[in-house]
Amino acid sequence: MTDFxxxxxxxxxxxxxxxxxxxxxxxxxxxxxxxxAQGRPSARTVLLKxxxxxxxxxxxxxxxxxxxxxxxxxxxxxxxxxxxxxEAGIQVRIEGRVEEVDAAEADxxxxxxxxxxxxxxxxxxxxxxxxxxxxxxARVASAEASFAGRDVPRPEGWSGLRVVPxxxxxxxxxxxxxxxxxxxxxxxxxxWSKRQLYP
Length: 199
Fold this sequence. Notes:
Oligomer: single chain
Number of strands: 9
């Protein structure tokens, strides 16, 4: 019996490698769509930082706009668009539930970031109203002074979120909108299936 989930992950990995070797500026850029408790959607572009059989991970302040939405409605959709690949570009769409990564994983990733990115995580009240750029610059300077001469720890409330796939679609662009689309989905019993979709 075909392990369709493994097949989908292997397909993503191969396409991601292809995108990284291509002219794509940021192949790990992905749109993350969320919705609030009333179902009103919002979307933004973030960077994929890790993926494996457990899911696809990005990092953020948990009190950001997307973090607050995912707390009340822990489901998200991801979209990768690699315009330069193949005949007319490739899209990968991933939908699933969202969970926070464990503290050790978040700590390890935070420690790998450039120091000023770490400082920025302390200085930013992500998505909240900012009175002026000078106010933010002052918060950056304050954080730099606080951690002078020592490692910058991960702030409480800054972590990774993992999208655990329930649906993965590969869209291969073609001329005249004669695209090729393959959809992988998991059912309530945890069984993955694969089907082709009309373009």
